[in-house]
Amino acid sequence: MADHPITPRATDYAQWYQDVIAQGELAEAAEVVKGCMVVRPHGWAIWEKMQADLDRRFKETGHQNAAFPLLIPQSFIAKEAQHVEGFAPELAVVTHAGGKQLEEPYVIRPTSETIIGHFFAKWIQSHRDLPLLINQWVNVMRWELRTRLFLRTGEFWWQEGHTAHATHSEAREEVARMLDVYRDFARDVMAMPVVRGIKTANERFAGALETRTIEALMQDGKALQSGTSHDLGQNFGRAFDVMFQNTDGVREYVWQTSWGASTRLVGALIMTHSDDEGLVLPPRLAPIHVAIVPIYKSDDERVAVLECAAKVAAELRSDGLSVKLDDRDGIKPGAKYYEWERKGVPLRLEIGPRDVAAGTVMAKRRVARIDERGKAVKEPLKLDGIGLAVGQILDDFQAMLLERAQDRLAKSILEVDTWDEFSAAFAGNESRFVLAHWDGTTATELAIKEATRATIRCLPYEGDIPGKGSLVGAGQCIKTGAPSPQRVLFAKNY
Amino acid sequence: MADHPITPRATDYAQWYQDVIAQGELAEAAEVVKGCMVVRPHGWAIWEKMQADLDRRFKETGHQNAAFPLLIPQSFIAKEAQHVEGFAPELAVVTHAGGKQLEEPYVIRPTSETIIGHFFAKWIQSHRDLPLLINQWVNVMRWELRTRLFLRTGEFWWQEGHTAHATHSEAREEVARMLDVYRDFARDVMAMPVVRGIKTANERFAGALETRTIEALMQDGKALQSGTSHDLGQNFGRAFDVMFQNTDGVREYVWQTSWGASTRLVGALIMTHSDDEGLVLPPRLAPIHVAIVPIYKSDDERVAVLECAAKVAAELRSDGLSVKLDDRDGIKPGAKYYEWERKGVPLRLEIGPRDVAAGTVMAKRRVARIDERGKAVKEPLKLDGIGLAVGQILDDFQAMLLERAQDRLAKSILEVDTWDEFSAAFAGNESRFVLAHWDGTTATELAIKEATRATIRCLPYEGDIPGKGSLVGAGQCIKTGAPSPQRVLFAKNY
Predict the structure, then answer these.
(1) A264-273 vs A13-23: helix axis angle to the nearest 10?
(2) Using one digit for the tens of pLDDT, what is the confidence trace for B445-460?
(3) CA distances from A29 to A5, A25, A278, B396 (A)
(4) Spatial distance between the Cα atoms of B465 and B486, rounded to a whole number of angstroms
(5) Stretch A35-51: mean pLDDT, rounded?
(6) Do A108 and B70 touch (CB under 8 A)?
(7) Distance from CA of B37 to the nearest CA of A (A)
(8) Looking at beta carbons, which residues of chain B come within 8 Å of A99?
(9) CB of B160 within 8 A of CB of B259?
(10) 0.95 cut: is pTM over it?
(11) Alpha carbon distance B345, B490 (integer Å)
């Protein structure tokens, strides 16, 4: 791999993204299974870290995991009119099993509102059974023609939360709460700032009354929808007869929500932090925090250096860090540096004979400060107290990645009031986060998309747009000139 | 649910098993998805604890997790002759996707040797790429007609380890190592003793040279295969052209293994420890370790008791225990006891006003000692130092469950030398672990099964049969009288 350098972002962003994934050994196209992917160990380890953190947040907010069937009777999908319209074109269908044709085909779940609605109807009788707060971590399948690793594949992995409530206001609180869980996770763990907001009717989940979203800015100016939370109203309750007896003894349909985040978060992570040297990982999601590379020539040096390196590794591990001591023979230190850089390891420690003698190691951050001579800064660390120093560097590194991404977001955002400015912002391959007025109609939304490929990402939450005041305020639609009550967020998107 | 008592084991063992699952709210038949199940939150929480412990053991032995596609091109299954013969009758087939008929159908993975073989061929070039040690945690599907919750369902959840090695002896070491991981997990976490052994050709994994197994004894005397580890030889290497250049520069096929354990372990757990009052869980797999039930009449009592209960809960939680403080109003203590018993919570603490005054709580183990008057013993514990006392009780409880199961195993095992004794051991619904001589032929194995429904569970490891010496030694086949070099283990099985 070392002979195939990573394509610079400025040369070909899409190729850069593929190169980062290939050289970081994160995933690859399955090829023999159309549109599907294999997630390789380094990529899956990142997803496992995401899962562990999100799962803790879901449990802290009272949710329990369960597992519902992969297969859904085809007729179930049709029970909610908008749902079937949205998902029917993407379904994979099982028609034969056990050597026979099935009486009714099954579809592989594209999402599980329908099958879960069926079981909620069995489990819920009384207001005492509510709220019912369920999540599952599963694979789902949506047959896609234009796929891209992690961002859009036939099979992907996700969690889907499904909850039932006695009142609409409780359900709406849940929708907002779980969107905030996604926002907190993105910011505090992925070091990725997001804008929360409400989707337009056109971009809403098929079968929802309202969809909320977190939208992240990628380095090429495009938006990536990173998590959604849906107010399903009583739509699936009606379709699957999910009723409860309220405190007055009256039977009512439950109010439901669903919310999901998927392996596309790995794609978001890559496009938020990585650079022309490859993958960059925030420490909180890095499968390996520290790579230690011993440097030696003679056998005597080797013994002394490896002894010291092993001590450092042991101390860092006792602090709960994941450490790779790269003691492979026959590979030069430079090749090792290169490999761990491409795998996004946040911190490298180099230990040579002079370091051992001086009681120091040389530390190199994956994204280092560049000095006045244009060289990446390395930092000498004392062996004495190295655990504390490394911990501090990793904390700083996590904070730096977030700040850098926040700066990029703040600089991207543009308020525009004319169609010329708007078109210019999306000329050619350009994209950024643009706040503009819109007349509220799907027709205009689609006309804008047709003209510029920019879509309405959301009606943003007040305060989620850094450096901007209120978005509410009368204006005129950028495209039609019709009145508009607030600015909405436009961008090209993944 | 409280109005439907659990059927006693002695009355109807199969119904007892279903009742324990239903009343413990572990799982239910999906019904609308033939042969499949929903794993409910309490059941899934047990599986998550199993996953966490096994996953740690896999990682400690050098394995990495990844994710391979759910769908496998149908032609892949046919590439290994024995594999397709074993799995073809159980496949679910996707023939349509994205609104079109597929050129080549896909099957939903029944196991992943074939698709993983395809990728191993891409990833492995040199001896430096070996060993390759991969695992995945996934759902798989085998279309089954006669299903039973957790034990045999169309869809189930499992892990499948897949490894490639440069030599057969390394692969065989891996097979034995992972079987021992399963044995250790069963014994030390599930409190379930098992017998390790080698499967006969007839019971071998389709495509393997050799299959090793751990077999557990259920309370009804039947065996439950609880984990298997396969020496695949070069069979899949040849079928998928998985080759490496050895240290002499010669290209060779790799030697592969695979090994798996599934959600049927939850069924094994139920049938090892549970009783006529419902689920019994070993503390190391209990989603809730301690249920605290406050007892009060007046409001004043309620305040004092709940304050004390909250303190106890906080102290136990600070020790890392999972505690349910059942402060629900309007439900009598007796009903709460009943509920947590059926859910298998290892320890219940009762706190009433007199306990608060005396600085004690009353502890009741899920399986308690019975006193001379036939009553289950409750133990008073001092509030001062309660964390230590509860920790000790839970350790004792874990050890007691293992000892009880080991006793049952030792008492079950019977060495027989005549067909009359053998038939008697398996008369009617009877089963136990029977050691007997067998002539080594599949014909005799099948004839014995036909006559008694007993199958050869394995050729046991020396030393895994408690209280017995060596199993090796000449004898005569129980059925044909032909010579036999060692006794093998028979039982009816799930």
Answers:
(1) 110
(2) 999 999 999 999 999 9
(3) 20, 12, 19, 51
(4) 13
(5) 98
(6) yes
(7) 7
(8) 88-89, 91
(9) yes
(10) yes
(11) 34
